[in-house]
């Protein structure tokens, strides 16, 4: 197990005092996921992390980063004592970034941050050691934590940067100092904290402010708000690279075929035409892939090799991952296919998810219902501001909705969609996810394809968990049948 931080290094980085000599192989902010040898950071949230220091040390933590000696912990325990734990974590992240030789890519956007980050992790892994943010660690804790965990010998680092309100992104990108900063798209999300899309675009564009000298800005060129992104790129970046579907984009989508379990993409990059396949269905994944190819080109990596490597990527759980639930251990056709997209939602991402559902192929004649169905279980889209009712109701008019057989709705906001749907598509409405989860075994059948989509706060992930309990869950086939 290699050493990530010594007591002396961490003390020098944070200005703290180490009570003894220790060596940490990792950094953790949660005792539930802490590994032996980690430095435990006692942050304060709903509960004070100092309450968990004794448990962290008992679980094998190398030391704890604290602002005081916690109750029940000996004075000579391995501690790093600082004035402010969060500021110390930020300092540790800054020091981790300062000492690395890794090429750093930072990713933000209204939709697709985590999927794009994971695509980059997958593609760059073929070129050298990659360090990337875990899950969606993208806030004032997650970014410095990602940098504090950055191995000394990493060749690449991928940092995800998110926001809920104005002014969040710039300090985080200055901490990360990326060589490449990428914006996936601008869409209605977090409108409760912004007046309009232009405000969201200006906040997202601030990711370019932290670019390292000679850095590249990558952004979509065919959005209404693209001029805002372009202006920031001109101000802060040495190089601008665009992607999209219109003439003039450096990385241009020429054609797309969405199949039940894959997407075939035809694109034009500087100096070459590309044809590649992603083992996941969705136009949004194709656009994310274009942005990834723009990023790797900016890092000096062969785009054709990267395009081939994209074929091995699949979405993570909660981000469009597909699985099949075997309802009968003997009858292998007794399957329900689930599209797990239960982590985040806004109008753009719901539209993309419904397009994936529309391309799915249910199976007829294998369940109680003669015809397999496309079923959407949609939870509230949060933080959309004063027009949230209209944005929810507007989902009923999406083109892909024509291919959906039944829509079940979860949450007070989704009630607007429920009543906007035609009666033949209207399933059931629940104020909360748990009652739907309790009844979901009556609502699906073998041969159905079920999309579960909603903001994390809608808790529709409980529905995914309930679906998994109906039988044995296995990954959906990654290749389309001939």
From TrEMBL:
Residues 329-455 form the Mur ligase C-terminal domain. Its main location: cytoplasm. One of its GO terms (molecular function) is ATP binding. It catalyses: D-alanyl-D-alanine + UDP-N-acetyl-alpha-D-muramoyl-L-alanyl-gamma-D-glutamyl-meso-2,6-diaminopimelate + ATP = UDP-N-acetyl-alpha-D-muramoyl-L-alanyl-gamma-D-glutamyl-meso-2,6-diaminopimeloyl-D-alanyl-D-alanine + ADP + phosphate + H(+). The keyword Ubl conjugation does not apply. Residues 25-94 form the Mur ligase N-terminal catalytic domain. SUPFAM superfamilies: MurD-like peptide ligases, catalytic domain, MurD-like peptide ligases, peptide-binding domain, MurE/MurF N-terminal domain. Pfam families: Mur_ligase, Mur_ligase_C, Mur_ligase_M. It comes from the Bacteria. Keywords: ATP-binding, Cell cycle, Cell division, Cell shape, Cell wall biogenesis/degradation, Cytoplasm, Ligase, Nucleotide-binding, Peptidoglycan synthesis. InterPro entries: Mur-like_cat_sf, Mur_ligase_C, Mur_ligase_C_dom_sf, Mur_ligase_cen, Mur_ligase_N, MurCDEF_CellWall_CoF430Synth, MurE/MurF_N, UDP-N-AcMur_synth. ATP binds at residues 109-115. GO terms for cellular component: cytoplasm. Pathway: Cell wall biogenesis; peptidoglycan biosynthesis. It is found in: Cytoplasm. Its EC number is 6.3.2.10. Belongs to the MurCDEF family. MurF subfamily. Involved in cell wall formation. Catalyzes the final step in the synthesis of UDP-N-acetylmuramoyl-pentapeptide, the precursor of murein. HAMAP family: MurF. This is UDP-N-acetylmuramoyl-tripeptide--D-alanyl-D-alanine ligase. It comes from Rhodovulum adriaticum. The gene is murF.
